[in-house]
Design goal:
alpha/beta, Uracil-DNA Glycosylase, subunit E, 6-stranded mixed β-sheet, 9 helices, 6 strands, globular, binds uracil
Length: 202
């Protein structure tokens, strides 16, 4: 199956994901699941937490205020949004933008694992502590896991395995969620500085 078809299969499964506790909330509000967007051959894959209202209304990740800042950061290192891949751990909007529950993360994360195998990125960049926690535990970096204030902007080498059980090296980089700069302007410089580390994957 082509990358495009594999990703389409994920989208079709998400549309029909009735066993999710977020399914009823999505359909009763006319929301969309947010699969992800960008290049299926991206070297850098950004992983946020869960869609907010703008994202659920449009089906596009990071398209609200936090997304605008994320785009600015991506362009600030000389990349275009279309050159990277952007997704979330949880693909449906939790009510009132609450944090995703551990059960929701467990339920949706297999879709993210499949997306990692499809895209085969060189770097997985987590945005916020929930995606950091999931991705670092999933890819055997439990021992390196710490408070985001301690490990933001650091890189961790690990591997993921494809469906033929072949290992692929990948670097995991934990960054603060871009929304943090919306309520604390001082964070903008921290984000810009942390983003510099991504230049080596371009
Ligand atoms: N916050 C996220 O974590 N993901 C989005 O897609 C938008 C806001």
């Amino acid at each position: 199956m082509s990358k495009h078809d594999e990703m389409k299969k994920i989208r079709d499964e998400l549309i029909e994901f009735r066993r999710s506790p977020l399914f009823e909330y999505r359909t009763s509000n006319g929301y969309f699941p947010v699969v992800g967007e960008g290049s299926h051959d991206a070297k850098i894959m950004f992983v946020g937490e869960a869609p907010g209202e703008n994202e659920a209304k449009t089906g596009r990740p990071f398209c609200g205020a936090a997304g605008k800042f994320l785009t600015e950061l991506i362009e600030g290192i000389g990349l275009k949004r279309e050159q990277v891949y952007i997704t979330n751990v949880v693909k449906d909007r939790p009510p009132e933008n609450r944090d995703p529950t551990p059960e929701e993360i467990a339920l949706y994360s297999p879709f993210l694992d499949r997306q990692v195998k499809i895209i085969q990125p060189k770097a997985i960049v987590t945005l916020g502590r929930h995606s950091m926690g999931y991705v670092m535990k999933r890819y055997d970096l439990d021992l390196e896991l710490d408070a985001i204030s301690k490990i933001h902007g650091k890189s961790f080498e690990t591997v993921f395995f494809d469906d033929d059980n072949q290992p692929h090296p990948v670097t995991v980089i934990a960054l603060y969620h871009p929304a943090s700069a919306l309520y604390n302007g001082g964070m903008r410089d921290t984000h810009k500085k942390d983003f510099e580390i991504l230049k080596r994957f371009m």
